[in-house]
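Worked problem 6 (solution included).
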Amino acid sequence: MNPNIDTKLSYNQYRELVSELVENKSTTGNDASEALVNYTMLNDRRMKRWDKTVKISEEDQARIKSFKGNVTWVVLTESWCGDAAHVVPVLNKIAELNDGIELQLVFRDENEELMNQYLTNGAKSIPKLIMTDNVTQKVVDTYGPRPSEATKLVNDFKAKHGTLSAEFKEDLQRWYNQDKGKTVIKDVLQLLRV
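Solution. The predicted structure is:
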């Protein structure tokens, strides 16, 4: 784990920052293009919706609460990332259910050394969750950038077409909306081994 992370944000701090960025027509990261500013605005709306609508079943809540670990989830993200806008609010809902899980958000572009340790197929794909045991200080697992079912959809499309089209990206957003965070919850339960 990289101990030199300068800025670690709680989920609430992250949400406040994203809202401020929207007000200032800005974004996080090294690229402040108009497109990424617009994605930040869109993602702020997405996260507000997920904060209100993500539901975790009583059975899954019980499983999450049964986790006996003492871990920190460092999540590499950026405000413009569409996948992060769907995944991070769900991770927060899960972390809120267990005092043994501390969620910290850090920015990919500010933490290049850390990001480079956790590439996905050679790419700086986010969000990327790095789960560290707080007792041993060892990384015990990682998760991301997408839920398992979304990853399969992306990989299948790339295998057939080589690159993701604008239409596919819209389809992926519809998939997230229909899934309602259920696959993230299922995947994280496996990560926690509960």
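Discussion: The two ends are 24 Å apart (CA to CA).
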